[in-house]
Amino acid sequence: MLRTLLLKRTVALTRHHSHSVLLRRFSAVPEPASSADAETRKYAGYAALLLFCGAATYYSFPLPDDAKHKKAQIFRYAPLPEDLHTVSNWSGTHEVQTRNFFQPENVEQLERVVREANEKRTRIRPVGSGLSPNGIGLSRAGMVNLALMDEILEVDKQRKTVRVQAGIRVQQLVDGLKDHGLTLQNFASIREQQIGGIIQVGAHGTGAKLPPIDEQVIAMKLVTPAKGTIEISKDKDPELFYLARCGLGGLGVVAEVTLQCVDREELVEHTFVSTMKEIKRNHKKLLSDNKHVKYLYIPYTDTVVVVRCNPVSKWKGPPKFKPQYTKDEAIQHVRDLYRESLQKYGAEGSRGESAEEQKIDELSFTELRDKLIALDPLNKKHITSINQAEAEFWRKSEGYRVGWSDEILGFDCGGQQWVSETCFPAGKLANPSLKDLEYIEELKQLIENEEIPAPAPIEQRWTASSRSPLSPASSPSEDDIFSWVGIIMYLPTMDARQRKDITEEFFHYRHLTQATLWDRYSAFEHWAKIEVPKDKEELAALQARLRKRFPVDSYNKARKELDPNRILSNNMLEKLFAQSDTI
Q: Where along the chain do its domains lie?
């Protein structure tokens, strides 16, 4: 970056100097015999100066031998300083560069990093695996990552608890608990999150009787800038404990976490296709009778894919079921659609590969969907045809599978993507309000009215309430249930222009849902998926909405006590939870 800055400065100074030299040169020369000769000499001088500046720049800033396209893009490949770290989220939608990226190996090193940063008043934002779609853990000023603090410290098999370092990934933890016959109560769609990160943003799985993941936390060790290392639980400083469980990384760096586990068990997953009319008739029973359940809606169709999971014991053993279609038969029509689409849009795919080179028959369904979308991502008719093919794929994929909960509860989310997920109350488990289904009906109608090229799926999940005040599912009543609805647009290529166009269309899609649905359903975005508006009025409106739902003043008060210099903050946190003395 330093070289880039110096380069820009050199070019600017050269331009200024050349302009003054030319002025002096032409003021000192007597008038030419003819205007034509004067013009010729003037432009010859310009050309010579331009060549000189170009040569000087090229040889002053040599490129590495392996730099690509040196002649076409000289400046882009100027080498960056070795101490500059580039950190981006998984979807590539948010990226920062920083010179301050710390990875302590133990609590003592973490304490020293936090203490020194606080003394210097330099920011070190806690960042986990970088999976949050909005990059909530990113900061140009500096970051601290606990990937090297990933050990299981203690397992209490009798109490079914586990104490871990916060940098351990979900899959690592689950694998480590297998020999003890334990596992986590619930899972999000993927397993790569660090435990410290997944609890701090209020992540969740699905199951109307199961709370978000932060409710599994029964004790924490926080390294704070102002008070050093503190241990909190429901018995030791309970008010701070509940606030810090879903604390967005702003109250301290989570160093250790104690989690309540459950017995490891096999689940039966049943996937079947339904319609909205059938869902309305069976919704209450589906929520109450199944340990885990979610709906996948396919825009521009009436298809609702229902995925429900229950212990094998409930089925009295694995169900006997012979699928009507093989896996190849279920996906064949999607392959055929891709081959037809390649012919329609040209002989080559989005990356210049021929159909044969892409080995279509080896691609999974989500890979095929990405490639299909990449051909014409904002064409509603094209997206509708893909959605119809997806509906047919699910119809042919109906059936059962049996496996351990950590194997069954995952979900292939597809490739890079923009996503917005909202959470809103849906009544009581014994008496659902059906607001969750009304929300979906309005959302699907909005998509069709506005002709949004909305891909599948619209994912709907449920959780019980959380006692963490900052959780989107926060409620003092244990009987309350909350619905979580996610909308999506995929980023299937690395083409910058295409990604920009998709991004603009997604935010238009998101804005329409916000304007039409959020206030009426008391819907609030997932902390890892909320995007901060650039417009000042929109930002002020968002801040006002957050104050109505969450204890913003209590959170800011705790931040001031534990992190008075706000070294653990970043621009996103400062804007969402603005204070008058923001640094």
A: 266-341+359-534
Whole-structure pTM over 0.85, yes or no? no
Q: What is the mean pLDDT of residues 385-395?
A: 98
CATH of domain 266-341+359-534: 3.40.462
Bridge partners (DSSP) of residue 219 are 233, 258
Mean per-residue pLDDT for 316-339? Answer: 88
Q: Which DSSP letter does residue 84 get?
A: P
Please report the pLDDT score of residue 88 as a whole number: 87
Q: What is the pLDDT of residue 67?
A: 39
pLDDT at 288: 95
For the cut 50, the answer to whether the pLDDT of residue 10 exceeds it is: no
Residue 426 has pLDDT above 70, yes or no: yes
Q: How many CA atoms lie within 13 A of 451 on its CB side?
A: 5
- Sheet with 152-156: strands ordered across: 152-156, 161-165, 253-260, 217-224, 228-233
CB 481 within 8 A of CB 463: yes
Q: How far apart are CA 540 and CA 525, in angstroms?
A: 16
What is the pLDDT at residue 64?
Answer: 45
End-to-end Cα spacing for the chain: 24
Rounded Cα distance between 433 and 441, Å, is 14
| Percent of the chain whose predicted confidence (pLDDT) is above 70 | 83
pLDDT for 165 equals 97
207-266 pLDDT, tens digit each: 999 999 999 999 999 999 999 999 999 999 999 999 999 999 999 999 999 999 999 999
The CA-based dihedral angle spanning residues 222, 224, 229, 232, taken in that order and rounded to the nearest 10 degrees? -40
Q: Kindly state the DSSP code that residue 98 receives in the 8-state scheme.
A: E
Burial class, 309, CB count within 10 angstroms (exposed 0-12 / middle 13-18 / buried 19+): buried
- pLDDT, position 130: 85
Query: H/E/C letters for each residue in 380-433?
Result: HHHHHHHHHHHHHHHHHCCEEEEEEHHHHCCCCCCCCEEEEEEEEEEEECCCEC
Contact 188, 218 (CB under 8 A): no
Q: Is 566 left (phi over 0), alpha (psi -120 to 50) or beta?
A: left
Cα–Cα dist 460/438, whole Å: 12
Burial level of 44, CB count in 10 A (0-12/13-18/19+)? exposed
Q: How far apart are CA 470 and CA 550, in angstroms?
A: 6
Give the distance, in angstroms, between the CA of residue 125 and the centroid of all CA atoms in the same chain. 17
Distance CA 350, CA 372 (A): 9
CA-nearest of 123, 130, 51 to 86 is 130
Closest CA to 174 of 145, 201, 143, 205: 205
CA distances in angstroms from 410 to 170, 186, 355, 406, listed in the order given: 12, 10, 30, 7
